Amino acid sequence: MSTPPVFLSLGANLGDRQGNIHQALQLLREQMVIELVSSCYETTPMGYRDQPDFINIACAARTALRPEALLRFVKQVEQRMGRQATFRYGPRLIDVDILLYGDLVLDTPELTIPHPRMAERAFVLAPLAEIAPDIVHPVLGLTIAALLTKVEQQANDEG
User: Using one digit for the tens of pLDDT, what is the confidence trace for 10-66?
Assistant: First the structure.
């Protein structure tokens, strides 16, 4: 049985940001085959702005883990790296989010796939569009590239 492609978003804004991303990728490789990694994108924080800028990437991987087990695993990676619970949108050593798991649509109290806010976040869509522009969001029916264009146009309209 082939495993579906899984797309993750990684972000860090404390300590050695690029080192943290690299370390997280190494730890993720314990349970995943990482096939593609985007460039690093430096982005300003959302929500709480009085904190350092983030570095964000996206990666494409394959894993035998089911979605719930994958969520537990990525949370373990965050904890092993020393991530402390703070407040929503607060600073962090590492943040790993599951964006897509094949074309699965899942909504449980623990996990929502596709990631519920990915379609409105340029800092998620830009790195994802670099490695997977033609992947279609299974709920919205638009490609990642089209979603990024939409978010960029909204930002230009507001700016």
Answer: 999 999 999 999 999 999 999 999 999 999 999 988 777 788 999 999 999 999 999
Q: DSSP code of 136?
A: B
Residues with a known catalytic role: 83, 92, 95, 97
Does the residue 152 lie in any domain?
A: no
Determine, yes or no, domain membership for 1.
no
Number of domains in the chain: 1
Domain that holds residue 76: 6-116
Query: pLDDT of 42-57, one tens digit each?
Result: 998 877 778 899 999 9
**Residue 75 belongs to some domain of the structure:** yes
pTM over 0.90: yes
DSSP annotation of 60 reads E
Task: Residue 38: name the closest of 17, 65, 57 by CA.
Answer: 57
Residue with tokens 């978003």: 9
CA distance 68 to 111: 7
In a domain, 128, yes or no: no
Q: Where are the alpha helices (DSSP H) in 3-143?
A: 17-28, 67-80, 122-131
